[in-house]
Write a structure and sequence with these properties.
2 copies of one chain form a homodimer. With 392 residues, the first copy, chain A, is an alpha/beta fold. Helices cover 47% and strands 12% of the residues of chain A. Chain A has 2 domains: 11-180, Rossmann fold, CATH 3.40.50; 186-390, Dehydroquinate synthase-like - alpha domain (Dehydroquinate synthase-like, alpha domain). A 6-stranded parallel β-sheet of chain A has the order 1-8-5-4-2-3, sandwiched between helices. A two-stranded antiparallel sheet of chain A has the order 6-7. In chain A, α4 (75-88) crosses α5 (99-112) and α7 (186-204) runs parallel beside α9 (239-251). The mean pLDDT of chain A is 97.
Chain lengths: 392, 392
Amino acid sequence: MINFDFCSPTRFIFGRGVEKQVGATAAQFGAKKVLIQYGGGSVKKSGLLDTVTASLREAGIAYVELGGVQPNPRVSLVREAIELCRKEGVDLILAVGGGSVIDSCKATGLGYYYDGDVWDFYCGKATPAKTLPVGVVLTLAAAGSEGSNSSVITNEAIHMKRGLNCELTRPAFALMNPELTFSLPAYQTACGAVDIMAHAMERYFTNTPHVELIDRMIEALIKTVMHNAPVLMENPSDYEARAEIMWAGTLAHNNLLGTGRECDWASHQLEHELSGIYDVAHGAGLAVVIPAWMKYVYKHDIARFAQFAVRVMDVEMDFFDPEKTAREGIRRLEAFYTSIGMPITLKELGVPTDRLKEMADNCKETDPSDHSTGHFIRLTHADCYEVYKLMA
Amino acid sequence: MINFDFCSPTRFIFGRGVEKQVGATAAQFGAKKVLIQYGGGSVKKSGLLDTVTASLREAGIAYVELGGVQPNPRVSLVREAIELCRKEGVDLILAVGGGSVIDSCKATGLGYYYDGDVWDFYCGKATPAKTLPVGVVLTLAAAGSEGSNSSVITNEAIHMKRGLNCELTRPAFALMNPELTFSLPAYQTACGAVDIMAHAMERYFTNTPHVELIDRMIEALIKTVMHNAPVLMENPSDYEARAEIMWAGTLAHNNLLGTGRECDWASHQLEHELSGIYDVAHGAGLAVVIPAWMKYVYKHDIARFAQFAVRVMDVEMDFFDPEKTAREGIRRLEAFYTSIGMPITLKELGVPTDRLKEMADNCKETDPSDHSTGHFIRLTHADCYEVYKLMA
């Protein structure tokens, strides 16, 4: 186990009807005037926005609204939100939505106290010093942004998507009612499940020895998602399955499962290039990337991949051929993705293979000193190209 | 899954040498003058207290010291500590020790802002409104108080030991170096392991259906403790095993593993009566209580006890006789306790059987409305007596 520093101060209020507590909760955090950000019109149509504003009014909290946050949240809207907060004297930002809306709010909170352009934080030109508090009413189980320290913003003018890890951006509170996810289409639910599992797997495949507790907890989380996602393919309104997956989504990414270990993150970089060029859903992209990445790297630590196969994928250990056990684990992961309607090849994803080299060369380097991506194995751009080819 | 409200804001700084960060960390929390509480002289002998005070001086933080916190921390010392804090203008309390020292500091922090007697909080006469922040340098993996909302204080004048659950008492930060636990005697290490497992099991045995994620996470934690505690019986200085158990100790009791479910806590009440009369270590008492409690209640939910047996105790499921599977799980838990030198009967614990009825009648009622203890099964005083008899 390696040394760590972990703090997840977010207050999670979870269960049926908790969105009605938003006014009282915001008041406990001292809010007098709130900026509500949301995405498309679904929170209006569903009546959720009305519930939220009624609760705020009841708590004597004023509010302004800003809709139109897009799936890859734009820095232009963030800039607009920052101006609105300043003009209106907002003291808390409320995200009503999923990861994109939350990330837009996180960026707004950081930009509020900064004299320069908020993009400076995302391109590495400046470090945030302070933030407005962010509250969340979650409508999607996937990104885990409701409990994480990360946000991803797109600068549409220069076609650049950049992430920021910053402890200041952990939300102050998150209201999580699994019922609010009943109406999600099956495809989006499946994408969410893949994303949640990916956050756990990026942490699982590590070179750090002696990480038993967190290994086992990650296994617990992935098994739970794999057990409950198929239930939702049959019955999208199964409360218990929605609840398991929603809480798993938070715990997969608040970095409890990253404590004491080096994490990988190559698969996320490979997927970012994919969805950067082709407009594919992040989860669907990950379902294609991860098995390919696994096939490329598993020989680096057959014992760990065999453990994954046996403990998570219920493969029977072949003691005389651990490598075969490891490969069977990867095969079963692919079979699982397929079973919930996810693609496992570029073809199934609808992506052509003529720009693989370009994507490989653009893959963000985790360690610029040796131009490598990921930690489990440090992939060169040439390695990335090989991984992309395995997706064909 | 039932609704929940969970917030664990403590900052955990974990690993080799982290105690040297205490000054810098306390400064980040705005500390100007600290009260250091500790127990016997071991932190002096080991040099830990010198390390802590040197770090505080380096950060420009003044301090006063108060040693002598006893294993069942006394309210008289807490009162003394409160006076000291007021007289000296202390703004942060630092616990250097294990659960008892931390609990004494938690009570001190609450009492500081209260005009009446701090015992009022523990006997239910008053509710805390504010606290001084508490920091921790942990020297013992067991009680989990470094991350929990609970504290237990003894009023020696009236022979009463009472617990308080209060979100205000979650520590601001905890510095956790597993090396600081190398010198613990095997018996105390084993007691700690039993206590940690008990915190997980009190949450595991629930009537709440559909709690898969947390079930699996609890199983992960108990298995990890069972795997690593025996390592320490052989080699008390095994860093990795100490680290697994220390982090497990925190996660077993910060109530992450209680989210979404009703918990039991009857075994803790039964043990409190035992250690209240006879001076036995809490962990050793629990090793005697828990198997007896299990034997008395397992028929209430054979499926859950079979799941525990199979997933935690590695019992092979007997599909034609789940009850036998459940019983074998309990037997293996007893065998585990025995293997790490823990007692599993009152006789082995050195406790006579002539006051069992008295202890049963004194068992703290979890629900005064029906005079019952625990939730998995609501034990009457007569039930408690039967459980005690099973320990003979």
